[in-house]
Amino acid sequence: MLDLALKNIMRNRTRTILTTLGILIGIGAIIALGSIAEGINVSIQSSLQLTASKISVQQAGAGIFGMGSELTNDDVELLKSLSGIKDVVPIDVSIGPMTGFAGPDYIFVGIEPDKMSYFAGENFKMYQGRNLDEGESGVAVVGKTVADKFNTQIGDSWSVKDEDFEVVGIMDTTGVSDIDSAILVPLQDLQTALNKDTYYSIYVIPDDVKDTEKIVAEINDASDNLQALSSADLARQASEIVDQIRFFTFGIGAIAAFVGGLGVMNTMIMAVMERRKEIGVMKAIGATNSMILRQILTESAMISVIGGVGGILLGIGAAIGLGAFSGGQIQPYVTPVLATEGLAFAMFLGVIGGLYPARQAANLDPVEALRYE
Amino acid sequence: MIETKNIKKCYGDGCKVTALNDINIHVEKGSFVSIMGPSGSGKTTLLDVLGCLLKPTSGDVYLDGKNVIGLDDNELAVIRKEKIGFVFQQYNLIQSFTAIENVELPLRIKGKSKWEAEDKAKRLLQMVGLGDRLTHKPSQLSGGEQQRVAIARALANDPKIILGDEPTGNLDTKTGQKILNLLKELNQKEGYTLVVVTHDPRVAEYSDKIINLLDGEVLNETYPNGSREHEARRGRK
């Protein structure tokens, strides 16, 4: 009966196309917005994997991204005095301009040159050039996104205030936007350039990963000014945020798609009214009520599934577009689960929207329907 | 083939309006029966009851020896699908379907595959003389041609009975005659049982028996070909 359903919905082409568009835009919105949430999720997850055993210490009250956090050398000494600690790594940052909507164009990260791997991950690789060397100054290693975006070559220079940094290396893509957008410079040089002696954050590396939670508790007890978070804490917070984003984006898309569903219902109610007589004929030649019900439901499901598939394609297109527009800082990602959800939601709308008109059609009295003019 | 016993159909609270009252008729297998009577005499209501589209208020209807009273909507739909073909005054073709697609419809409802239905629909349209109009839409066909398509559709699921509701009512004399000849041919050569509601005296002339209704009751039955005229005097003054 699928060929008949297709034939029936194509009778009023314009109406069907407009109705399909309603679903298409709604599902497209769910997929496009959902893909941003998934992209953020992927980015956060891979960034957390790189920093599995790292404890991140910031000034208390500075929020998850640590904006405005200022830590001192006293804090560094305090952390070093704790037991079971392998390393204490202060870092500072200087955030570049925001020209896009997806975060700053670049971030200067000041770190002691031999501690680079605590920021970039143990397995980071150079794309070109070399690492920073211990004791060096006036040099920089840039992330791949920065290098591509600003066409930075080995030997070029970047500057913070009056300090110039010569690029000696370009890191390979890591997929973590914080790292790929970073310009790593020696900590002392950045402090000098910014004329300050406080730090944005301090990484604490435990001797034994198993002690992580214990050390986090110790740090939080040791000073009211310090707030320590393990990667597990960060992961928890991040996944809460991602869940909220997911919920929010699905909500917005679902509202649009729901309006599309009302369009399907409207179209099918009109179609049933127009085809009253024909439904009477179908019954007279032996169609049962459930057959008529199925016929109308098939038609409305078909409209919404076509809209759903179109919406998924639109969403994928929008995700690719958003990725390109953000300059690679957000990598929207359409997961199979997201696509399946979108299609299932479209189908759900089709069936819900079709149910009322389908029941109306099925319950038509054949004698009345046949003589209807 | 068809037999009714004391059919009554009324509408409204406490049966205010009586459409059919105490109808007892008999239609022999392979016969051609006309139902005549003035407007409002209950002709169409009776045809709807015989066609299992309408349930009478009381009485029994035997089709092919089986009482259809008490069957539910689905069972009635099955009987319509298996045993009955309808031909309407307004043809009632689906405008957006081609001739062949209209004839395929009952077969598709029956669950036949597209190609099987197409094959049979084509043969039926050839039989009613529309072999060259298969892919025409109803709007591209004359009234007579549309009625031929409707007849082909009625024949599609090999019914035992063809019920016609003023099948020539919308056609000019000449075209009506052709449709009538076709129906007569189906009755005589193919052996279909025909029950036709009509105002057209020529249709009635062709039939084996005329059932005359008045105010929802059988006024009399006549046999225009004279064969059983002696039986037909009941009720006549």
What are the main properties of this structure?
heterodimer, A: 373 residues, alpha+beta, 2 domains, ten-stranded mixed β-sheet, 13 helices, B: 237 residues, alpha/beta, six-stranded mixed β-sheet, five-stranded antiparallel β-sheet, 25% strand, disordered C terminus
For the residues shown, what is the average pLDDT of chain B? 89
Residue ranges of chain A: pLDDT <50 for 5 or more in a row? Answer: none
Q: Tally the structural domains of chain A.
A: 2
**Rg for CA atoms of chain B:** 18 Å
Give the tally of structural domains of chain B. 1
Characterize the main sheet of chain A.
10 strands, mixed
Are there runs of chain B of 5+ residues with pLDDT below 50, and where?
Answer: 229-237
Helix content of chain B: 25-40%
Number of strands of chain B: 11
CATH class of chain B: Alpha Beta
SSE class of chain B: alpha/beta
Find the count of extended strands of chain A (DSSP E, 2+ residues).
10
- Taken in chain order, the helices and strands of chain A follow as HHEHEEHEEHEEHEHEHEHHHHH
How would the blueprint of this fold be written?
The complex is a heterodimer of chains A (373) and B (237).
Chain A: H1 2-9, H2 13-50, E1 55-59, H3 73-80, E2 85-95, E3 107-111, H4 116-120, E4 126-129, E5 139-142, H5 144-150, E6 157-160, E7 163-171, H6 177-180, E8 182-186, H7 187-194, E9 201-206, H8 212-222, E10 226-230, H9 231-274, H10 276-284, H11 289-325, H12 336-362, H13 366-371
Parallel strand pairs in A: 3-8, 5-7
Antiparallel strand pairs in A: 1-9, 1-10, 2-3, 2-9, 4-7, 5-8, 6-7
Chain B: E1 2-11, E2 17-23, E3 26-27, E4 32-36, H1 43-50, E5 58-63, E6 66-67, H2 73-83, E7 84-88, H3 99-109, H4 114-127, H5 143-155, E8 161-165, H6 173-189, E9 193-197, H7 201-206, E10 209-214, E11 217-222
Parallel strand pairs in B: 4-9, 4-10, 7-8, 8-9
Antiparallel strand pairs in B: 1-2, 1-3, 1-5, 5-6, 10-11
